[in-house]
Write a structure and sequence with these properties.
This protein has 72 residues and is of the alpha+beta class. It has two helices and three strands. α1 runs parallel beside α2.
């Protein structure tokens, strides 16, 4: 059985010390909001992506999350 294409994005989240709790797709899939948890502090982070994950390459997704986490 093939793995979901979103598994790669979940691995990126894990490599940043975060855990993906939920993904909300809004406006017929044109917008995604991720609910993440920082593994060290336990704090919840809400990440509103500029566009759906499948329209972002993995590097772009990683950079966006790094910037979001560093600003907190």
């Amino acid at each position: 059985m093939a793995r979901s294409k979103y598994t790669q994005y979940r691995k990126v989240v894990g490599s940043l010390g975060l855990r993906q709790l939920d993904v909300y797709r809004i406006e017929k899939g044109r917008k995604e909001i991720l609910r993440l948890q920082d593994k060290r502090s336990g704090k919840i982070i809400i990440a509103e992506l500029p566009r759906p994950r499948d329209e972002m390459n993995l590097k772009e997704f990683e950079e966006y999350l790094k910037k979001l986490v560093s600003s907190r």
